[in-house]
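Why show two proteins at once? Because comparison is the fastest way to build intuition. When a single record is shown, students tend to memorize it. When two are placed side by side, the eye starts asking what differs. So, the first record is below.
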Amino acid sequence: MATKRMTPGFSDQVMGLVKSLRTDAPDCVASGVVDMSTGMLLSYETVDNHPPEVLDLLAGATLDLFQGRTVAMIEDVFKERRGIQSENHFFQEILVNSENLTHLFVRMNEQQDVVAVVVCRKSVNVGMLFAQVRRVVREYSL
């Protein structure tokens, strides 16, 4: 949606969201915001240096998780069966555990194409992670 980029202060809000996620999420090593409508990583903070190509791939991977072809087909089937006409998506939060890290992807409440991404050490308390990230996302409601 073009309207979100025209909103005064959107860039400042995104940077504030990334900073709050980075400082408030427990055991956080990186945070970012992905705009799935443009396929861009809008902003990020990390404690490590990552190759630019990995950061570029984050937006595409986020899009695949939330709105990949098969996911979209599942949503369409459920919407049809339930008689739902909404443009909202079913998948709102996705937790991915890798070998050493926990990755939490959360859609913003107002802008369904904007996803907050938080990466934490695998030892993170997942309940606290969800609670803190949800609180921050509610505060920013992009």
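Second record. Ask yourself what differs from the first in the token line.
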Amino acid sequence: MTAKATTSATFEQDVLQADGPVLVDFWAEWCGPCRMVAPVLDQIQTEHPDKITVLKLNVDENPDLAMKYQITSIPAMKVFHGGEVKTTIIGAKPKFALEQDLAAYLA
């Protein structure tokens, strides 16, 4: 299972109304570090499908959400739970570091 995409049209339902925690990966096609972190996020999604949902949001195609959530550099990952941002992670990190940042949701 790999991370699915969300858009401005589906964000409310996919993220804000989701039952459990949702990690949104704010990324762009031209962003090298974004491409580096994508397979790591796919692995986390595959290994913890019942604990966290990983979604990707292309900032070039959805600038309204990038502005709303103050995305000034990418990759930026935000964990939403109960419709609110609970955790923000900036920059590409190795898997173990991302898992440490997400430990509260993966336990």
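One difference worth noting in the second protein: The radius of gyration is 12 Å.
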